[in-house]
Design a protein that fits this description.
Belongs to the bacterial solute-binding protein SsuA/TauA family. There is one protein chain. The chain is built from 13 helices and twelve strands. It has 376 residues and is an alpha/beta fold.
């Protein structure tokens, strides 16, 4: 069906596509082995291995909110920081599959959203992961069909997609719905608004066909929908103090952190240097992220999607711990999570050491950092 036709006239015929089972979100197994990239990823001749470790396994999602990983990989910044220890990459489509890989020991370090980190930490009784750094803020929008939705009040009674039951955007949308005074059953998604859990890869097709009226989604999916004729009704950043909220953090297996802290330090150094390079070279960084997306998926983002998506994301080494605590509270209020004990979810010791060496200010864990023995 031509995209130029008014969305209200398009046939509502693929609703089933927008309700994929949870397991369909995993790429293959725990994740997809990322394709070999350019010469920047090669280990430099004669470079020394850190802790004698041959390889560190790093995971990320193929979207722009994980651009620190995309750019750090494509530019070779992460590999340079790791010296003779080779960075081996895997890409994921959903947080639960990345957490599962971490738990299974097939992943050491990963870029991930706050809700999967919270859920993974809570379900393991605080034994599987630590958040060791920040990466990105923002980049989430409510995009709607302007033929069907002209105001925030019009969202009531409509079908709105989120990426996955209980994922970061799903929790945020459910929280926003509750603040409007509307009722929705969190598990089924039925109520005053119908929440349709849909893979980000499928949502643009569902939106184009008219089987959903809008979506609360991260970039670049939000800008894809705008390119399909959608309108940004709400930027989630407007709901947070200073327009800052965590969308991507760096996590590590507790076992790996204990056994290889120097390798974790190297990855965090690479992450900090990447964010600094992004800030100094925004146009080059945007192009680098797009090249890595093309390498991973076989398809680059067109300019009308890439440019607005990139503008809405802020890259930060600060994990914005207070906003993660708030997001956990939102999940509890929605009935998706029992009140978790998040004490110890952060260990920012290594990050702050890296930041100090770079002349940057330390970041705060909002009282949720791992307890360390007091020196006598």
């Amino acid at each position: 069906m031509p995209a130029s036709l008014p969305l209200s006239r398009l046939r509502r015929g693929v609703a089933a596509l927008a309700a994929l089972p949870l397991l369909a979100l995993a790429a293959c197994g725990y994740g997809s082995q990322a394709k070999d990239g350019n010469a920047n990823e090669q280990v430099a001749a004669g470079a020394r291995k850190i802790d004698g470790l041959d390889t560190v396994r790093i995971g990320y999602f193929g979207n722009l909110t994980h651009a620190t990983a995309l750019v750090g990989r494509e530019q070779g910044i992460l590999q340079k920081a790791l010296g003779g220890t080779r960075a081996s990459y895997a890409t994921f489509n959903a947080g639960p599959s990345e957490i599962e890989a971490l738990n299974a020991g097939s992943l050491d370090i990963g870029w991930i959203g706050p809700s999967p980190a919270i859920n993974g930490y809570a379900k393991s009784d605080g034994k599987n992961l630590r958040i060791v750094g920040g990466s990105a803020s923002g980049g989430v929008k409510l995009v709607v069909n302007p033929d069907e939705v002209t105001s925030l009040e019009d969202v009531k009674g409509k079908r709105i997609a989120t990426p996955q039951l209980g994922n970061t955007q799903d929790v945020a949308f459910l929280n926003w719905i509750a603040k409007q005074g509307w009722k929705v059953d969190a598990q089924s998604g039925k109520g005053d608004v119908t929440v349709v859990r849909s893979d980000n890869k499928v949502t643009p097709d569902a939106f184009r066909s008219g089987s959903v009226d809008g979506a609360w989604v991260p970039e670049p999916t939000a800008s894809r929908l705008v390119a399909e004729g959608g309108r940004v009704l709400l930027d989630e950043a407007s709901l947070w103090p200073d327009r800052k909220f965590v969308i991507t953090n760096v996590i590590v297996s507790q076992k790996f952190l204990e056994e290889h802290p120097k390798v974790v330090q190297a990855v965090l150094k690479g992450s900090v240097e990447t964010n600094r390079w992004i800030g100094a070279n925004p146009a080059k960084a945007k192009a680098a992220a797009n090249r890595q997306l093309e390498t991973d998926s076989g398809k680059a983002l067109p300019a009308d999607v890439l440019d607005p998506a990139w503008r809405s994301i802020r890259f930060t080494d600060d994990p914005l711990a207070d906003t993660l605590d708030a997001e956990a509270a939102h999940a509890v209020e929605a009935g998706l999570l029992e009140k978790p004990d998040l004490a110890g979810i952060y260990d920012l010791t290594i990050l702050n050491k890296v930041l100090e060496a770079e002349g940057e200010s330390a970041v705060d864990d909002a009282g949720l950092g791992v307890e360390r023995p007091k020196s006598r």
